[in-house]
Specification:
By secondary structure, the protein is an alpha+beta fold. The chain has 27 helices and 23 strands. The chain has a seven-stranded antiparallel β-sheet with strand order 9-8-7-6-12-11-10, with helices on one face. Strands 2-1-5-3-4 form a five-stranded mixed β-sheet, with helices on both faces. Strands 16-17-18-20-19 form a five-stranded antiparallel β-sheet, covered by helices on one side. The radius of gyration is 39 Å and the shape is globular. The termini are far apart. One of its GO terms (molecular function) is non-membrane spanning protein tyrosine kinase activity. It comes from Microtus ochrogaster. Its main location: other.
């Protein structure tokens, strides 16, 4: 067992090459052991020895000893080998033996810090310290040839698996560098590779393991049997391979393959093993499952290795490089709620950090240590890039000091970095539109820019001077390009304490950046509006501070995402209205904002938002911006003229405001997130616009489309938008109140005699086709009004004055804002009787009248039954081909004197359904998916009348899922079809998507009118929409069949 040396204390090592001759004693700086806590750490490492006492070293240290000193002492001791050249590749890992908890210890951490931060979480005996190779050079295969000790140690680390229990360090974390090699090979890859590959790797390890064995030793049966019994073949070959081959055959294969490597030395076997394994396994990288924060969270596999930081979205794609280690300037770990954390990497030449969200703080710290180690290994400086690596916890729990002249020492590294090349923002050369001073553009009355006004606090202008003594800084809210942003308390001249946000400017900022920093404050001096962030004061002496109102709810985008389940449509419209009022104010003073988005809007209260971040403040600090050579602007928010001609006017602000409204109604989603920046202008030029959000009222989306008019002069002005949004807000608020009232109020049921407990009467239908009528004043109001509505509302005319659907060419959709009021009976029926006899007569007359209505309703039910059966036969001609049941129920015999049912209204776009082609349908995925879709439509038809309104979505969702499968099967077949047929097929696919959208709209309409008299009409519209979808699916099948015939892919059915 190894001895215990004197306590370590700041060992300074010049070289790790062990000199020849007897080892010299370790040079130790004297330390008063009695005044410091002394500990003995047991550090495990890899070894070829089967003696457990040679697989660890006891290190005596104090609580002030750094982790790097412990690593150095083990490497200098010679326990793992002589002449170590790559000492910077080693790291120390703390592992909890009873769980998967892993902590990589930063070299600058002290033993006391490890004890306070990690060891206190579990019993001390359950922790184990492991010496590992974690950081590999970029050309590690060549570098390891120069360092034999590190090469063999890395190989021992690679090949160690849970199969071998001879060493104390057999258990390894599955994602550590090198451990994924042999460990993952035996556990994950060994069963997947070919027998030849597994045989080669096993014989290489066999040759290395028995490096002194003659090349023909295994030819002897006794030697082979000794190998099987004493060592075991499981150490070299996969168990599945041994089970699949006969013992005699397996032995012969080993003997033949071993002869190929019998002449190799130990190092050559190791290198050959690495080269072979690298063909199908990543042997030099670690993989973390995490989320990239880029406006929205993207779940990726983050690959960290000698070639930099890369992301892997799927196993079939190549990793995309996010950053190289030489570009990284700072590393920071920030804890989040629910145990999660964010790792922020400062990138050189980028305005914001690369933010990575992890599932735990320990995982973020392990990634930070890995990245910092590679930066030390490949970078020019050897210091740590982790900000406050040793005192981060103390700083987080303590209040920051007021910035002084040594602010440079606390400079934020995050501001010198930006995220990877964002797919949301792109380069916009804008040299002519913005001068270094920043600021807004002054416009003419026609809305077009004239001269640029540089606002930089001219002498003699108004000063918002504030004494630094009146501001108390608290915690840090964030950091940006100019400096840190603090939460603070400001005491005004009246003695009132106000919560404020304080932006600071770094001391080493250039004069140009200081002017840009001050330009925002000067701009905000001139603004006074209840929905614009208010400037509280400025401290112009260095370090410069800008003091503004503090809003605890934060940015609107984050607020919408957090509260999307509780926010209602009227509240979202209210937010849009308030921002519009702020923009109308800017319009009145001839200013353009140029960056209207939810990220630039702050939430003052659940009912109030404020527009902020004017000028370069948000322009620099926004995490979504892509750094370009001259300027960076949000492409996907901008109007066509701004993208094409760098033209920014009030009209372009209107466009951006409409995009901001779209963000609000989409609960913070980013516009055109499915497109790249370079593709946006092409989409806009074709006339395509953002789709309507699910909860957006149609009238509001119509207003958005007006704001997205290609011609700037045709877009509405903000003053007009304020009026329109005010009306929409009031309308949505009234609808919400009405819906809440309907949810609380349910009309009492009228108890009738038993004989009359039947369905309520349906509106009567005329037995003739009325003459066509035309409403010249409001053609969109030409739809049939049910008789029940006309009877209860004196303002509505008789249904005779409206054309029936039978002669109407167009049936417009029912508007969600048309709220009708209906009574159970007509008002003239409630004549107060003068005597008991008269009351009895009225009751008898009402009974006769009710019976007539019920008889007429029963006749209509018979007609509906016939009509529905015809619809079913049209929907799927194969379903009722063999159905011999009569179409008329037995009760129909009593109604032979009836003149006949009225003609059903013709279905718009009705198509004569032709039978499908007579082809062999074996393994025809398109045909089977069409049949499944038709069955889903039939299921919707059969269950619609039985389901409650809230369950309509289930049957519609079933239709949508089957439609997705159908389109997917067509997409798989499309490349093999002639190009001349693809246009028709793709057009039919788009039509099916529109049919599904129409079905969803009809479903929502039916849910909204479930308690009104329009319920049955809305259900019929759902059935019609589903029928149309089924017919178009059949047309898609016909188009595919026709294309298959042209491509000689179709075959006649078997005899």
């Amino acid at each position: 067992m190894s001895g215990v040396s004197e306590p370590l204390s700041r060992v300074k090592v010049g070289t790790l090459r062990r000199p020849e001759g007897p080892p010299e004693p370790m040079v130790v700086v004297p330390v008063d052991v009695e005044k410091e806590d002394v500990r003995i750490l047991k550090v495990c490492f890899y070894s070829n020895s089967f003696n457990p006492g040679k697989n660890f070293k006891l290190v005596k240290c104090t609580v002030q000893t750094e982790i790097q000193e412990i690593i150095t002492s083990i490497l200098l001791s010679g326990r793992i080998g002589p002449n170590i050249q790559l000492a910077e590749c080693y790291g120390l890992r703390l592992k909890h033996m009873k769980s998967d908890e892993i902590h990589w210890l930063h070299p600058q951490m002290t033993v006391g810090e490890v004890q306070d931060k990690y060891e206190c979480l579990h019993v001390e005996a359950e922790w184990r310290y492991d010496l590992q190779i974690r950081y590999l050079p970029e050309d590690f295969m060549e570098s390891l040839k120069e360092d034999r000790t590190t090469l063999l140690y890395f190989y021992q680390q690679v090949k160690s698996t849970p199969v071998s229990q001879n060493t104390l360090n057999a258990e390894l974390h599955p994602f550590s560098a090198g451990e994924v090699l042999r460990n993952d090979y035996m556990q994950r890859y060994a069963s997947k590779v070919s027998e030849g590959m597994a045989l080669q790797l096993g014989c290489l390890e066999l040759r290395r393991f028995f490096k002194d064995m003659p090349h023909n030793a295994l030819d002897k049966k006794s030697n082979f049997e000794l190998l099987e019994k004493e060592v075991g073949l499981d150490l070299f070959f996969p168990k599945q391979m041994q089970e699949n081959l006969k013992p005699k055959q397996f032995r012969k294969m080993i003997q033949q393959t071993f002869q190929q490597y019998a002449s190799l030395r130990e190092e050559e076997c190791v290198m050959k093993f690495f080269n072979t394994l690298a063909g199908f396994a990543n042997i030099d990288q670690e993989t973390y499952r995490c989320e990239l924060i880029q406006g929205w969270n993207i779940t990726v596999d983050l690959v960290i290795g000698p070639r930099g930081i890369r992301q892997l979205t799927s196993q079939d794609t190549k990793p995309t490089c996010l950053a190289e280690f030489k570009q990284i300037k700072s590393i920071r770990c920030l804890p989040l709620e629910e145990g999660q954390a964010v790792l922020q990497l400062g990138i050189e030449g980028a305005p914001q950090s690369l933010s990575i969200k992890t599932s735990s703080l320990a995982e973020a710290e392990n990634m930070a240590d890995l990245i910092d180690g590679y930066c030390r290994l490949q970078g020019e400086h050897k210091g740590s890039l982790i900000m406050n690596a040793k005192k981060d916890g103390e700083k987080r729990n303590s209040l920051p000091q007021i910035p002084t002249l040594n602010l440079e020492a606390r400079r934020s590294q995050l501001s010198e970095s930006c995220s990877i090349e964002s797919d949301i923002y792109a380069e916009i050369p804008d040299e002519t539109l913005r001068r270094p001073g920043g600021g807004f553009r002054v416009l003419k009355e026609d809305g077009y820019p004239t001269t640029t006004v540089t606002i930089v606090g001219a002498p003699g202008g108004p000063q918002y001077g504030v004494s630094r003594e009146d501001v108390v800084l608290n915690r840090i809210l964030g950091e940006g390009f100019f400096g840190e942003v603090y939460e603070g308390v400001y005491t005004n001249h009246k003695g009132e304490k106000i919560n404020v946000a304080v932006k600071t400017c770094k001391k080493d900022c250039t004069q140009d950046n200081k002017e840009k920093f001050m330009s925002e404050a000067v701009i905000m001096k001139k603004l006074d509006h209840p929905h614009i962030v208010k400037l509280m004061g400025i401290i112009e002496e260095e370090p410069t501070w800008i003091i503004m109102e503090l809003y605890p709810y934060g940015e609107l985008g984050h607020y919408l995402e957090r509260n999307k389940n509780s926010l209602k449509i009227p509240t979202l419209v209210l937010y849009s209205l308030q921002v519009c009022k702020a923009m109308a104010y800017l319009e009145s003073i001839n200013c353009v904002h140029r960056d209207i988005a939810v990220r630039n809007i702050l939430v003052a209260s659940p009912e109030c938002v404020k527009l902020g971040d004017f000028g370069l403040s948000r322009y620099i600090e926004d995490e979504d911006y892509y750094k370009a050579s001259v300027t960076r602007l949000p492409i996907k928010w901008m109007s066509p003229e701004s993208i094409n001609f760098r033209r920014f006017t009030t009209a372009s602000d209107v466009w951006m405001f409409a995009v901001c409204m779209w963000e609000i109604l989409s609960f913070g989603k980013q516009p055109f997130f499915w497109l790249e920046n370079k593709d946006v202008i092409g989409v806009l030029e074709k006339g395509d616009r953002l789709p309507k959000p699910d909860l957006c009222p149609p009238v509001l989306y119509t207003l958005m489309t007006r704001c997205w008019d290609y011609d700037p002069s045709d877009r509405p002005r903000f003053t007009e938008l304020v009026c329109s949004l005010s009306d929409i807000y009031q309308m949505e608020k009234d609808i919400a109140i009405e819906q809440e009232r309907n949810a609380r109020y349910r009309p009492p049921k009228i108890l009738e005699p038993t004989a009359f407990q039947e369905p309520p009467p349906k509106p009567s239908r005329p037995k003739y086709r009325p003459p066509p009528q035309t409403n010249l004043l409001a053609p969109k109001l030409q739809f049939q009004v049910p008789e029940g509505l006309c009877a209860s509302s004196p303002t509505l005319t008789s249904p005779m004055e409206y054309p029936s659907p039978g002669n109407s060419l167009h049936t417009p959709p029912l508007h969600r804002h048309n709220v009708f009021k209906r009574h159970s009976m007509r008002e003239e029926d409630f004549i107060r009787p003068s005597s008991r006899e008269e009351a009895q007569q009225l009751w008898e007359a009402e009974k006769v009248k009710m019976r007539q209505v019920l008889d007429r309703q029963q006749k209509q039910m018979v007609e509906d039954s016939q009509w529905l059966r015809r619809e079913e036969r049209c929907l799927d001609p194969m379903v009722y081909m063999n159905d011999k049941s009569p179409l008329t129920p037995e009760k129909e015999a009593g109604y032979m004197e009836f003149t006949g049912p009225p003609q059903k209204p013709p279905r718009l776009g009705a198509q004569s359904i032709q039978p499908t082609a007579n082809l062999d349908r074996t393994d025809d995925a398109v045909y089977h998916n069409v049949m499944t879709l038709v069955e889903a439509v039939l299921d919707l038809k059969n269950r619609l009348s039985q389901l409650p309104p809230e369950d309509y979505v289930l049957v519609v969702k079933n239709v949508g899922l089957n439609l997705r499968k159908l389109i997917g099967s067509v997409d798989d077949l499309l490349p093999s079809l002639p190009s001349s047929s693809r246009t028709e097929i793709e057009g039919t696919q788009k039509l099916l998507n529109k049919d599904l959208a129409e079905l969803i709209n009809k479903m929502r309409l039916a849910q909204q009118n479930a308690v009104t008299s329009l319920s049955e009409d809305c259900k019929r519209q759902m059935l019609t929409a589903s029928h149309t979808l089924a017919v178009d699916a059949k047309n898609l099948l016909d188009a595919v069949d026709q294309a298959k015939v042209l491509a000689n892919l179709a075959h006649p059915p078997a005899e």
